[in-house]
Write a structure and sequence with these properties.
Length: about 280
C-alpha cells in the first residue's frame, strides 16, 4: 500500500503513527520563550529541498492537513503581540519572530506529514526546530495551582455552547448569565486587565492567548448537535465570562483575591470558587 493511500486511514491524531512527536511539539508551542525566538530564526534558511518538502507536506491529501492549517493559525494567534511589536513587553524584533514562526510551521508540517515524507524531507523541515529543541516530551503547559478549575472551565465551554440541546448545560448557562448580569462590567474588565498584566509579568501571555483562542473557537464553531453556526449575544456573553475566568485562574497566585473573585464568581456553578485547587 502506498504512503498516500495509507494516510487516507489517518482520520484523527489518535490514529496518527507520529502522534507522540506531534503532541510533544504542540504542547511546547505556547511555552516557547523570547530567548528561543532568535535561535529558531537563525536556524531557519529556505532551500529548494525545504520548499519541496513543505509543498509535499501541505498537499490536500496529506495527513490531517486541515489540522495542520489550524495549528498554523494558532501559532499566529499565540505570537500576535510579538508580530505587531507595538507593546512595551515585546523585546524581540518582529522580523525575527516572523522567521521563527516559519521554523515552527515547518516543524508542525513535518510532524504531521512524516508518513509521506522521505527522512531527508522530514529532517529538513524539522532542522531549525530541533536545533533549539532536540526533543519534545509530552508535557502540558503549566496552568498554575488552579489548573484543575481551568480544566473544568475549558471542558465546560463546548458544552455551554450547545446548551440548547443539553438540559444540564442549559441550567449552568442560565446560572452564569444571571450571575454575570449582576457584575459591574467596568469592574470586571478592570479585573481582566489586571490579570492580563499579571500574565505578561509571569511570562504566561502565550498560554493566556491559547485559552482565549480555545474559547473563541467554541463561540464561533458549529453546534455539535444541530450543526448551526449562529451564536447569539447571550451565548457570547456566557462563554466570554468562562474564558476570562479561566485566564484569571491562570495567574491567580499573582493577583489579589478580590480580583480573582470578580472574574470567577459568575462561573461558580462550573468550578468551586470557594475551594481553590492546591
Amino acid at each position: 500500500m502506498s504512503a498516500r493511500r495509507t494516510t487516507a486511514l489517518i482520520e484523527s491524531l489518535d490514529a496518527h503513527p507520529n502522534a507522540d512527536e506531534i503532541r510533544g511539539l504542540l504542547c511546547r508551542l505556547p511555552c516557547v520563550s523570547d530567548h528561543a525566538l532568535p535561535m529558531l530564526a537563525s536556524g531557519w534558511h529556505n532551500t529548494t529541498l525545504l520548499a519541496e518538502a513543505r509543498r509535499r507536506a501541505l498537499e490536500p491529501d496529506s495527513p490531517l492537513v486541515l489540522e495542520v492549517l489550524t495549528c498554523f493559525d494558532t501559532v499566529q494567534a499565540l505570537f500576535a503581540d510579538d508580530l505587531r511589536g507595538e507593546d512595551d513587553y515585546v523585546h524581540v524584533d518582529p522580523d525575527t519572530t516572523t522567521t521563527a514562526l516559519k521554523a515552527m510551521r515547518d516543524a508542525i508540517a513535518a510532524a504531521y506529514a512524516r508518513p509521506i515524507l522521505t527522512p531527508a524531507e522530514h529532517a529538513a523541515l524539522m532542522r531549525a526546530w530541533r536545533g533549539v529543541f532536540p526533543s519534545d516530551p509530552i508535557i502540558e503547559p503549566d496552568l498554575g495551582g488552579r489548573a484543575g478549575e481551568i480544566g473544568l472551565l475549558l471542558d465546560a465551554i463546548p458544552r455551554l455552547a450547545d446548551h440548547c440541546h443539553d438540559a444540564v448545560a442549559a441550567g449552568e448557562f442560565a446560572s452564569i448569565r444571571i450571575a454575570g448580569g449582576s457584575v459591574d462590567e467596568d469592574v470586571r474588565l478592570a479585573a481582566r486587565d489586571e490579570a492580563w498584566h499579571a500574565a505578561v509579568l509571569t511570562s504566561r501571555r502565550r498560554i493566556w492567548h491559547l485559552i482565549q483562542r480555545s474559547g473563541r473557537t467554541a463561540m464561533t464553531g458549529y453546534c455539535r448537535v444541530c450543526r448551526s453556526r449562529g451564536r447569539d449575544e447571550d451565548t457570547t456573553r456566557v462563554l466570554t465570562l468562562c474564558v476570562d475566568a479561566a485566564c484569571g485562574l491562570l495567574v491567580a497566585s499573582s493577583l489579589e483575591d478580590d480580583i480573582v473573585d470578580v472574574l470567577t464568581e459568575p462561573v461558580g456553578c462550573v468550578v468551586s470558587v470557594d475551594n481553590p485547587a492546591s
